[in-house]
Amino acid sequence: MRHAARWYGAALIGWGMLWLGGNVTASCAAGVAAAGAVAAHGAEMAARMQPAEQQAVVQARPSAGADTNGLLDWPGVPRLGLPVLRMPDFSTTAQPADGNPCPMLPWLALAATWDPELAHRAGVARARSEWRHGRAVLRVGGVDLLPSGRLQAGEDQVLAGTTAGMIGAGLLSGHVLPVFGSVMGEEQARADGVMPERTRQVPATQLVAHSLLGVAMALETAHGGAILCGGMAPCQTVTGLEQVVHDGWRFPGMVMALPGGAGQATDNTAAPALAAVGAGVDLEQVGAHEDGHDVLGASLRQAVRDGSLKPALVQAMAAHILASFYMAGSIDHPPPFASTRAKVDPAPDDTLVSDVEAEGTVLLQNENRVLPFDPALGPVLVLARPAMAHAAGLLADALRHAGLAITLNTVADGAGAPGTLPPAAAQAARVLVLSDSNDDNRMITSLADLGGHVAVVLGSDDPDRQMPWLDMVDSVVQAWAWRDEYAQPLAALLAGQQDFSGHLPLTLTGGFYPPGMADADYRAFANAHVVPLFPFGYGLSTRGHVALGDLHVAREGNHLTASFSVTNPGSMPVRVVPQLYVEAPPDLPVASRRLAAWRSVVVAPGRTLRLGMPVSLRLLGQWDPAGGNWAVGAGDYTLSLGFSSVMLVRHATVHLPALHVPGALEAAPTPVIATAE
Q1: Does the pLDDT of residue 148 top 70, yes or no?
Q2: Closest listed residue to residue 617, CA positions, set 553, 563, 526
Q3: Helix axes 311-328, 38-48, angle to 10 degrees
């Protein structure tokens, strides 16, 4: 049933504060406490609208003007003081408001930091840019309604939902509304071309513990926002979304459909509007080229006229829309349109991009301790194909600045056959190769055959990158889709000025999958009892190893608390990401072992930290459609601690009785870091 659901107020404070250190300021607490009035305020304002106004605000249409290419306007209601709000067309990959053709940040590098504070900083920076350019709404990818193991923020819903949610929290702090959902272009295709089914209708109740879990965590972590449906299929593909989102989760905000995402009206019948409303759509984006074949325009008005759509439902849709905008403060603090400003000042300088690349770069292999490069061992030869030549030049300069002797050579495309490598390669004791595709595999193999030490930097986001040379080279670094501005932080890592601390947010498969797999995520590999090339969560350090103490688990209400210690016996500080995975008893129909919690901490040399991490029991349950809650079966649940999905060194078992956990989005207790020993 459509209604303006009651907001869950202060319960939302948990996840965001969990990752921001657990310190809730008075202003933040007051803001969250006031969230309880959001739904009521939206419903009250929607009730004050005239029927024509209610019908108008359920669409965002192309903006007028020469400087508004690709932007849409939510019309507002001037009579009630509701301003026009501008947003991008979400059917395309989000770009910065300043028109820069490159994404503001390398998404997978950000996810590979496993650092929610950095994600929050990214959201704050993006909010500043969007607001200055007159845009009040921004889509945040990385999560979606339909299952996908290869979205921008990685393959795990808990990690992706938290990352997207912290970006959303940063956006909300700048009065920019985050809309959580992805588009097809953001999904990595598998090397063998196999894709999960995207067109068959699937009940939302079957997705609550899977893809929808990421959406729920994003909303919960951000303390608000909106949902995008239509990223990979029409909204009607996920049936019963309305009941899960508004009745089960008690989320009062809106569900948006991108242009064409709710189907298209082809005649003057009410059917398309009825289907969209039945699918839970509150706001439709209308594309510039739809030529009037939108859904919530003439089709909706026809449905209201002939009585097939009750006006109260349209009013509820308007209330959901207003609730989302009130969450962001966009209505009370609307950004000025960029066209009315004589000059848009650039954002202040920030180290965000460098910090993301430095923390997100993953060391996959380091035989013979080739990395970091030691200046005392002589020069390093840097090799790259023409496509990477410019980036290689910048990296070489940065490495020289770090004190290394560097020789740079550009090799021809297809190099690797006898006689095609530069003469310097045969004399070089250490070679650094920048590679962005499988086209370099022959060259890397030939270099390794020469007998020198070879380090390979992977500069693409391909999780299926083949590495036939893996056993022949010394070091492998996953640097993601880095380019010019990332040369300095990458050089700092290679030269040892900073330690590697990134961990994989997805599985590196090498292009090989167990038979019958549709998705290639870590749970699919575990179910097939196949070890991937590099597992989810994996990452090495050059500064030594830490030791994990015994794992203890206790139940506290609707959460488990896992406690353990982390000891750094070395002489240098190490940033570590201990990961906690949970597994249900084998006789219960619950997903296989999955990530439940993690912490990103720096451990000082010779010190021990005692950590506590909360785990929501809903990660152990199945969604109960009848009760609108999570059903947790009785049995012995195993929690495992380690540094990847397969490198788990501490285990604990907790027995749970049969439980029902409320379905409403909730708060999690703040994790505890005790005083170091």
Answers
A1: yes
A2: 553
A3: 130
d(CA 258, CA 295): 11
Is 28 part of a structural domain of the chain?
no
Cα–Cα distance measured from residue 614 to residue 19, given in angstroms and rounded to the nearest whole number = 12
Q: Which residues 6+ apart lie within 8 Å of 351 measured at CB?
A: none
pLDDT digits (tens, 9 = 90+) for 289-343: 877 789 999 999 999 999 999 999 999 999 999 999 999 999 999 998 754 444 5
> What's the predicted TM-score (pTM) here?
0.92
> How confident is the model at residue 67, as a pLDDT?
64
Which one of 499, 518, 537 terminates a domain?
Answer: 499
Q: Output the pLDDT for position 11.
A: 34
Q: Do 215 and 225 form a contact (C-beta atoms < 8 A)?
A: no
The domain of 621 spans: 547-675
Residues 128 and 256 in one domain: yes
Domain containing residue 119: CATH number? 3.20.20.300
Give, rounded to a whole angstrom, the gap between the first and last alpha carbons of the chain: 55
- Domain membership flag for residue 308: yes
* pLDDT value for 592: 82
My answer on whether 376 and 316 are in the same domain is no
CATH of the domain at 455: 3.40.50.1700
Ranges 354-358, 419-423, 519-523, 589-593, most confident: 354-358
On whether both 324 and 366 belong to a single domain, the answer is: no
3-state secondary structure at position 88: strand
Round to whole Å and give the CA distance between 140 and 508.
24
Q: Same structural domain for residues 121 and 227?
A: yes
Is the domain of 558 the same as that of 457? no
Alpha-carbon distances, residue 226 vs 215, 530, 582 (angstroms): 10, 38, 29
pLDDT of residue 418: 72
Least confident of 96-105, 198-207, 453-462: 96-105
Q: Are residues 552 and 487 in the same domain?
A: no
Residue scoring higher pLDDT (3 or 329): 329
Which pLDDT score, from 0 to 100, does residue 280 have?
92
pLDDT-derived band at 450, boundaries 50, 70, 90 = very high
Q: Which two tokens stand for residue 89?
A: 């067309």
- Whether residues 144 and 275 share a domain: the answer is yes
Q: Is residue 520 part of a domain?
A: no
pLDDT (0 to 100) of residue 146: 86
* Backbone φ and ψ of 662, nearest 5°: -55, 145
The last residue of a domain, from among 282, 308, 328: 328
415: β partners: 417
Alpha helices, DSSP H, located in 81-180? 107-113, 116-132, 157-173
Same domain, 163 and 260: yes
Q: Is residue 15 part of a domain?
A: no
Q: What pLDDT shows up at residue 270?
A: 87
Domain count for the chain, please give it. Answer: 3
Centre a 10 Å sphere on the Cβ of residue 196 and count the other Cβ atoms it contains.
16
Please state the three-class secondary structure of 112-129 as a single string.
HHCCHHHHHHHHHHHHHH
CA distances in angstroms from 600 to 118, 123, 407, 462, 640, listed in the order given: 11, 19, 37, 25, 17
Report the pLDDT value the prediction gives residue 338, as an integer from 0 to 100: 58
